[in-house]
Design brief:
- The protein is α/β, with parallel strands linked by helices.
- It has a single domain, classed as Ribonuclease H-like superfamily/Ribonuclease H (Nucleotidyltransferase, domain 5, 2-Layer Sandwich).
- The protein is 38% helix and 18% strand.
- It has 6 helices and 5 strands.
- It has a 5-stranded mixed beta sheet with strand order 3-2-1-4-5.
- Strand 2 and strand 3 form a beta hairpin.
- The protein starts with a strand and ends with a helix.
- The model has no long low-confidence stretch (mean pLDDT 91).
Length: 196
Amino acid sequence: MTQDRVFVVTDMEANGLRPGEHSMLSLASVAIAEADGAELSRFSATLEPLPELTTEPATMAWWAENPVAYATATRDPRPAAAVIAEYVAWVRALPGQAVFVGQPLIFDGGWVAWYLWRFAGLRLFHGPRPGKPLFEGGGVDLASLAMGATGRRYAESGRSAWPEAWYGDHAHSHCALDDALGYAAALRMLLVAARR
């Protein structure tokens, strides 16, 4: 019998664009059952910036224009090592094989991959190099799924082109948990569309 899969819809915020040079500020994931789209669990945390890393001026200028979002993304930070240890334990406790979901996958996945390797010695996905993966397969990119499930063209598949209804009642606020909840609502809708 095949084990059920759990989609781990993830969003994160950072003080720059490059993991290893800049720091992740917040991380949130919403676990969704593949079978029926039910929410199974949530994870949300803020991380202390790594002292040896820098910030990116353009990103920090954007945060300065969005002070409420920045306050949320940086409230009550904890050491990155502790947050990542808790995240790994949370993923492993989910009732099924975990599949990472990002919007876009390459951005959120890149950051989570770097932090997993640095603080837990884990890979995000299976691959040719050593290290045990935390997630199954190669993950799901929501924009790509939107193209396949709805027939939208590439230019219509990115987040800025999505109908507001796809997000349910969740505003895209740049609070990692709010955004992950909105992406989880979109995933539910896209899974239904893909099964038609």
